[in-house]
Amino acid sequence: MIFEAKYLIVALYFMRILASCKNPIRTPIFDKDGESYRIIVPFQEGIEISRYEIMEGRRNCDVNSFNPIYSSNEIYLKGNMMIIELDEECEDESKIYSICITTKDVKTFFTESFFYDRKKGYFLERFAEDSRFYKVYAPHIGGTLFVGGAAALVYCFLR
Fold it and tell me: Which domains does the chain have, with CATH numbers?
């Protein structure tokens, strides 16, 4: 009985870790209005945003190479979406960009990185340049791992 309780404690500990790793910032949505661009950043309800920074990094480099190029405490919110107007300074094809969001309780979150494609004249998510395999099958692989883990936990508890 004590041996099975250890399994339960370990399983609950790992589930707690997985639940706390979830990023409350969703995938950004890009919009073009005439010549100006805007990025719409959906976020989880209950998040109170205090500031944001636009971060710039070089393509095919380390994630830690990002530097802030713009920051603001003025935030335009519409429901649970933050709307940011992008300037022409973010149209460098050799750079990738990300939005760093700081909450009122001083937690920092980053959006997925994106870049400007001159051929299309539009901003794209970074995964759009990666292989199609990852983009198409990542949710299926994640779901399979989750179901397998859940089945293993059920097996441990019911045997």
Answer: 2-158 (2.60.40.10)
